[in-house]
Backbone:
């Protein structure tokens, strides 16, 4: 009796599921979903030839230093980089003296407390400090349109490196056939690489030679966009090269182990009857 009841209950669930599926298919066929304006005008990120692409990719230290220059001169006044310390810049090829100079000359000082008066004050950064936020607190940050922290931005966005570079170069006038309700208004800017097409951040890279590269590379808009995207990728994944190297070692080990296992199998079971 219990089995019969269980079978009937299960049959009822299957029937309800089949009925729902049938009506869902009918509704989809009779009234297919309409493409939204965001889907019609949104563009996927362009693909750039980053040196760290692929399983054996490595960072280009010169590119990372150029990207850091772009962050320092263009992005740092609005966007924080809270998970990185100045001393991490040694991984980009900067010497100890250069890191100390960068920290000491950073345009935003580090908040601290005056030990004599107990009042809030600031001081110059040292290599062990993390990059100070350009905003005094969350209220000041919200008043500045909540610019995101860039420490993990390339991991927080799909196809992050390509997305950042595409977004920085994607500012343009809205197309003529864009509906009026989707056109940017007020302080918004049209960018087809942004999810809802209109972004509050003004174009940060507006012209060639906005940054003067120390290595003499021509600072075109595309070069600066790609370089800062590479730097932010390193900021989010500083151990990427080690992971690639470890992956190669693991693959070689597994190949050798597989070969030894096969030879052992042939040796042990060579005389066994099949």
Residues:
């Amino acid at each position: 009796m219990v089995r019969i009841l269980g079978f009937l209950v299960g049959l009822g669930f299957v029937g309800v599921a089949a009925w729902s599926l049938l009506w869902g298919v009918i509704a989809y066929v009779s009234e297919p979903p309409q493409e939204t304006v965001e889907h019609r005008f949104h563009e996927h990120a362009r693909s750039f030839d980053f040196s760290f692409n692929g399983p054996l990719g490595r960072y280009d230290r010169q590119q990372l230093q150029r990207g850091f220059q772009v962050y320092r001169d263009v992005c740092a006044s609005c966007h924080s980089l809270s998970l990185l310390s100045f001393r991490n810049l040694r991984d980009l090829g900067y010497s100890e003296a250069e890191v100390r100079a960068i920290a000491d000359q950073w345009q935003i000082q580090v908040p601290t407390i005056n030990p004599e008066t107990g009042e809030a004050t600031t001081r110059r950064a040292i290599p062990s400090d993390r990059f100070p936020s350009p905003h005094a607190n969350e209220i000041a940050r919200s008043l500045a349109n909540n610019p995101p922290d860039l420490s993990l931005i390339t991991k927080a966005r799909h196809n992050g490196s390509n997305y950042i570079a595409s977004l920085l170069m994607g500012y343009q006038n809205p197309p003529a056939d864009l509906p009026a309700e989707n056109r940017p208004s007020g302080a918004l800017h049209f960018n087809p690489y942004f999810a809802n097409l209109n972004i509050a951040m003004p174009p940060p890279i507006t012209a060639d030679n906005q940054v003067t590269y120390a290595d003499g590379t021509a600072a075109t808009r595309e070069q600066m966009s790609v370089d800062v995207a590479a730097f932010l990728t390193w900021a989010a994944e500083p151990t990427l090269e080690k992971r690639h190297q470890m992956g190669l070692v693991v693959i070689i080990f597994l190949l050798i182990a597989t070969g030894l296992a096969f030879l052992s199998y042939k040796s042990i079971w060579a005389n066994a009857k099949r």
Observations:
- Strands lie at 110-113, 120-123, 189-190, 198-199.
- The mean pLDDT is 90.
- The two ends are 50 Å apart (CA to CA).
